[in-house]
Amino acid sequence: MIEMRGVTKLFQGEKAVDSISLTVHKGTIYGLLGSNGAGKTTLLKTLAGIYSPETGTVKVEGEPVFENPGMKQRIMFMPDSPYFFPQSSISQMAAFYRSIYPQWSQSRFKELGAVFPLDTKRKLSRFSKGMQRQASFWLALCCMPDVLIMDEPIDGLDPVMRRQIKNLLFQEVAERQLTVIISSHNLREIEDLCDHVGIMHAGKMLIEKDLDDLKADTHKVQVAFRDERHEAAISAKLQVLHQERRGSVNLYIVKGESERIAKVFEVYEPYVFDLLPLTLEEIFIYEMGDAGYDAQPIIL
Ligand SMILES: Nc1ncnc2c1ncn2[C@@H]1O[C@H](COP(=O)(O)OP(=O)(O)OP(=O)(O)O)[C@@H](O)[C@H]1O
C-alpha cells in the first residue's frame, strides 16, 4: 500500500503540490488526471522518492521512500520522456538495470522479446519515439518492481502496442500484485485501465475516488419541463455542475445518486426525462469547469 499524507512540494516558494493525501492499495491501478501544470509530475516524483516534500510523508508498506535505497529497488519510475544513457542499446541498458534492481528477471526479458519487436543491439537514440517508449516498458517490466509509477506513458504508442501494454499491466497486477500509478491526458485509456482516479488542478486534488463510484456519482439529465419556472428550482435542490438549454430541452450535469436525482425531477412531471451516465472525459471537463478551469468560447 502507498500512503501519501499532507504532502506539499514547493518550487521557488510556489506550491506545485498543495496538501495532498492519497492511498493506493496493493495490486490496483491508480490514474492521475489533471490540467497542464496541475502538479501531476511533481506528485509522481514525490511518490517515487525523487523529490523530498516540504511537508508531509510518503510511505510504501509503512516505510519512507525518500533516501531509502532498499525501497527504491522496489519502485520503478518511468518519466514522460524515456531516458537512456547516450549511445546505449537495449542490451546495455538491461545490463545496467540488472545491476541496480535485484529482482531483475532475465527469463522475463527473453519472453518479452516476443512482444517488443526491437533490435536489442541497435542504439536506442536511433529508435523512433514510440520504439523508445516500448523499450522503456520492456526494461521496466523486467525489473519486476512492486510499484510502477508512469508519467504519461501511452503517448507515441500505436493502438496495437497500447493494447499489448495494457494486457501486460493487467497480467502483472493479477499475477504478482503489482501496484501501478499512471498519469495521462488520455481519458479513454485511463477509463479502461484504472480502478481508482484522482483529478488534480493547481496543486490540489479536486476529487479522488473509485472509478465506478465516480461514474455512479455524476449524471447527465436531459429534461423538458411543462413549466419553465421549474428550471430554477432544480439548482436549489441538487448540485448542478453545468446547465444549458438545447431548444426546449434542458441539459443538466448533476452530482449525486441516480435515484435521488430522478426523484427531484419527477416532482415536476417533465414531459421529457432521460438520466444518462457520463464518460470520464465529460466528468473531467465538468469538474474542471466547477473548479474555474473552463474552455472559453473564443473563435479567433
Ligand atoms: N523543476 C521545477 N522547477 C520549478 N518549477 C517547477 C519544476 N517542476 C515543475 N514546476 C512547476 O510546478 C507546477 C506543476 O508542474 P508539473 O510538471 O508537476 O505539472 P503537470 O501536472 O505534470 O503538467 P503537464 O500536464 O503539463 O505535464 C508548474 O507550475 C511548474 O511550472
UniProtKB/TrEMBL annotation:
Gene Ontology molecular function: ATP binding; ATP hydrolysis activity
InterPro entries attached to this UniProt entry: AAA+_ATPase (IPR003593), ABC_transporter-like_ATP-bd (IPR003439), ABC_Transporter_VariousFunc (IPR051782), P-loop_NTPase (IPR027417)
CDD domains in alphabetical order: ABC_DR_subfamily_A
PROSITE patterns, per database record: ABC_TRANSPORTER_2
Gene3D superfamilies for this protein: P-loop containing nucleotide triphosphate hydrolases
Segments forming domain ABC transporter: 2-227
Source species, domain of life: Bacteria
SUPFAM superfamilies, A to Z: P-loop containing nucleoside triphosphate hydrolases (SSF52540)
The entry's keywords: ATP-binding, Nucleotide-binding, Transport
Protein name, as recorded: ATP-binding cassette domain-containing protein
Organism: Paenibacillus monticola
